[in-house]
Structure formats: C-alpha cells, structure tokens
Amino acid sequence: MKFTKVNIPAKKHIALVAHDGKKTAMVTWCQTHKTTLQQHTLSATGTTGALIKSKTGLAVSPLLSGPMGGDQQIGAKIAEQQIDMLIFFWDPLSPQPHDPDVKALLRLAAVWNIPVACNEASADMLLTSTYMNEELPRAQPDYSDYIATRSR
C-alpha cells in the first residue's frame, strides 16, 4: 500500500452523528464546545443536526436521517475527502436497525484515516488537541493504482 502526505486543514469539516439514546449527550457536548465548533464547518444526520441547530444555534448542514441514508451520505463525503473528522456518539447497548450502515461509516473513516470519536471523552480529546485549529499532517492511503485498475 502506498501512502501520500496530506494535511487536514485548520478549518475542519466535522460530521456529527448520534444514535437516539445519545442525542441529548451530543447536544450537551456541542453546547459545551460551541466556541470551538463554530469555527469549523458542521454536517450532521437529520434529527441530530436539527437538534444541534435548534438547541445551540450552531450552523449545521443537515443530511438525511441515519436510517434513511444519512450515515451513507456522510460515508460518501468521507470517501470524496469532504469530511475531515467524525464525531459519532453511538449507543453500544441498543440494537440499531441500520447497524450495517454504521459499521460501513466507521470502516470508511478508518480507510481514509480521518480522526473519529465515538464517545464524549474521545471527542473532548480531539477538540482540545493542538491540531484542532491547525493543519494536521497525516498519511492518507493512495488508492490511485487500485482505482486505475478498476476503471479498465
């Protein structure tokens, strides 16, 4: 596998996702970190985004609800390198009807090597990192050879 050096920009595009049992925690977390979050571009799945926007006043680009395809929309944006960070408060104790979509979303974040937080403590660590408002150098997988062989 080849890698290429790229930078995650100082102004990041952050995707916000929360399962039903974690939506209140996500809104509270966003209120706590509003000053930092408002310096970045935010996208969120349907209900989560609407709650964040109404409860915090943060500008959030809404996508579809997770089970309706919102998780997949975020996954596509990650694959297209339009998302720099994923904050996903998932509920590990509740069954999710769209669990394959959730796993696919986390897999894409790992494939493209973007920062991911799946709970408040990890999200706090990311937002308080010295890289939060600076460029973050990282190795990104270079799939150009693979893509070239697929398009023949």
Write the layout of secondary structure elements.
Blueprint: E1 2-8, E2 13-18, H1 23-32, H2 34-37, E3 41-44, H3 46-56, E4 61-62, H4 70-79, E5 85-89, H5 99-111, E6 116-117, H6 120-127, E7 136-142, H7 144-150
Parallel strand pairs: 2-3, 2-5, 3-4, 5-6
Antiparallel strand pairs: 1-7
Helix pairs in contact: 1-3, 4-5
Task: Please tell me about this protein's structure.
Substrate binds at residues 19, 23, 45-48, 65-66, 98. With 152 residues, the protein is an alpha/beta fold. The protein has one domain (2-150): 3-Layer(aba) Sandwich (Rossmann fold), CATH 3.40.50.1380. It contains seven helices and seven strands, in the order ββααβαβαβαβαβα. The chain has a five-stranded parallel sheet, sandwiched between helices. Strand 3, helix 3 (46-56) and strand 4 form a beta-alpha-beta unit. The longest helix is centred in the C-terminal third of the chain and has 13 residues, at 99-111. The two termini are 20 Å apart.
Short description:
By secondary structure, the chain is an alpha/beta fold. Helix content is 41%, strand content 22%.
Q: Which structural class matches the secondary elements?
A: alpha/beta
Strand content: 15-25%
How do the helices and strands follow one another from N- to C-terminus?
Answer: EEHHEHEHEHEHEH
User: What is the C-level CATH assignment?
Assistant: Alpha Beta
Number of domains: 1
* CA distance, first residue to last residue: 20 Å
The number of helical elements comes to 7
Question: Any idea what the CATH architecture is?
Answer: 3-Layer(aba) Sandwich
How many strands? 7
Q: Please name the fourth-level CATH homologous superfamily.
A: Methylglyoxal synthase-like domain
Strands ordered across the widest β-sheet: 4-3-2-5-6
Shape: globular
CA-based gyration radius: 15 Å
